[in-house]
């Protein structure tokens, strides 16, 4: 059976951040009228979240209130209470959550409390780093989900190692492949983007920094920005779309001088980011999504984090895990020196995240879970 068998607005897709909007967009399109989009407001502002909804051609969501800006426990509690009321008033046939955010956990707990079938997209990611709140979120969701959509065989193996039954696990691929292919701007638009920022293809670094481990202390953020400054001083342009959290931290820690040689711009729309990433000689980021996107774009990435739940990009040769400070600068210099050969090698390396049909598989499995009698017919 397919999503066409589902009644309108019957599958609640719960999310709360911009990366979730991006990753779930092809699945929401695949579900069509059956999708009921619920945004917890964990990361909500009209300038960024509203823009993503429009760019990704997504329906207006049900927006929860009073969630953003709270600490983790407050976000989960506020979201859970409102979701429970919403699911009591209009019970969905299934709930879909993605990844490992506070919205993911709240959506999963709300579904579990009401006995509603729960689908976890991108199940089985593990960093084995208990200092990461996201690790706790994803583990808890995996153990209560009814359908675990693992992006890769390694993710499925993580689930089996935790004794989750095979019957609940499906290897579907990652929706990121579809997202990147659909959202990557045309060659003409990419050329215009490069002209706008005065960049030469394959001759610049594109960087993003936003995770707490890199922005919550002056030492960590100074180490990252210091190495980006070093790259710029060596003659390679560095484009830095500055996340609001990072901008505030730069001002708080008096690190503005480290931005002087960088080309600092406002946060980019998703398609523009992909267009610029497609022609970067090197990506430097602490983002989870960029670790996946780089494998579809064929671009090298230095992951500025102490651990990663996405080792596939590293194992396939697209990425390396580095700590802030000299290690970042030294490896960046090495990779930039080897730029042409590295780009040619990655262009011929397939993404480890699947064939671009993940959302179709997940929608079909969700329909079978939501309406089992139709699946058996």
UniProtKB/TrEMBL annotation:
Keyword annotations from UniProtKB, A to Z: Isomerase
Cited InterPro entries: UDP_GlcNAc_Epimerase_2_dom (IPR003331), WecB-like (IPR029767)
Stretches assigned to the UDP-N-acetylglucosamine 2-epimerase domain: 35-364
Family: Belongs to the UDP-N-acetylglucosamine 2-epimerase family.
One Pfam family here: Epimerase_2
Entries under PANTHER family matching the protein: UDP-N-ACETYLGLUCOSAMINE 2-EPIMERASE
Name the record gives this protein: UDP-N-acetylglucosamine 2-epimerase (Non-hydrolyzing)
Superkingdom field: Bacteria
């Amino acid at each position: 059976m397919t999503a066409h068998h589902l009644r309108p607005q019957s599958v609640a897709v719960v999310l709360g951040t911009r990366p979730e909007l991006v990753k779930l967009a092809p699945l929401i399109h695949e579900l069509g009228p059956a999708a009921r989009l619920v945004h917890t407001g964990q990361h909500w502002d009209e300038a960024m979240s509203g823009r993503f909804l429009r760019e990704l051609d997504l329906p207006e969501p049900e927006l929860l209130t009073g969630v953003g800006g709270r600490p983790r426990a407050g976000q989960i509690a506020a979201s859970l209470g409102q979701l429970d009321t919403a699911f009591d008033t209009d019970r969905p046939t299934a709930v879909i959550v993605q990844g490992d955010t506070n919205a993911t956990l709240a959506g999963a707990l709300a579904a579990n409390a009401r006995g509603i079938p729960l689908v976890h997209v991108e199940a089985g990611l593990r960093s084995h780093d208990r200092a990461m709140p996201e690790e706790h979120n994803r583990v808890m969701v995996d153990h209560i989900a009814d359908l675990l959509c693992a992006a890769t065989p390694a993710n499925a193996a993580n689930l089996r190692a935790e004794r989750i039954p095979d019957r609940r696990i499906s290897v579907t691929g990652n929706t990121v492949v579809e997202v990147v292919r659909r959202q990557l701007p045309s060659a003409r638009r990419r050329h215009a983007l490069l002209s706008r920022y005065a960049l030469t293809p394959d001759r610049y670094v594109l960087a993003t920094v936003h995770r707490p481990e890199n922005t919550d202390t002056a030492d960590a953020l100074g180490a990252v920005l210091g190495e980006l400054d070093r790259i710029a001083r060596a003659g390679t342009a560095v484009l830095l779309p500055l996340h609001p959290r990072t901008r505030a931290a730069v001002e708080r820690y008096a690190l503005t001088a480290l931005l002087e040689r960088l080309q600092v711009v406002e946060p980019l729309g998703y398609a523009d980011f992909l267009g610029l990433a497609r022609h970067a000689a090197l990506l430097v980021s602490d983002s989870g999504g960029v670790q996946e996107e780089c494998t579809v774009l064929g671009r090298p990435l230095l992951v500025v984090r102490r651990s990663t739940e996405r080792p596939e990009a590293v194992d396939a040769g697209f990425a390396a895990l580095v700590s802030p400070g000299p290690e970042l600068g030294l490896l960046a210099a090495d990779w930039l020196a080897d730029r042409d050969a590295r780009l040619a090698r990655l262009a011929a390396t397939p993404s480890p995240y699947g064939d671009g049909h993940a959302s179709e598989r997940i929608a079909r499995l969700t329909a079978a879970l939501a309406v089992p009698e139709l699946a058996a017919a």
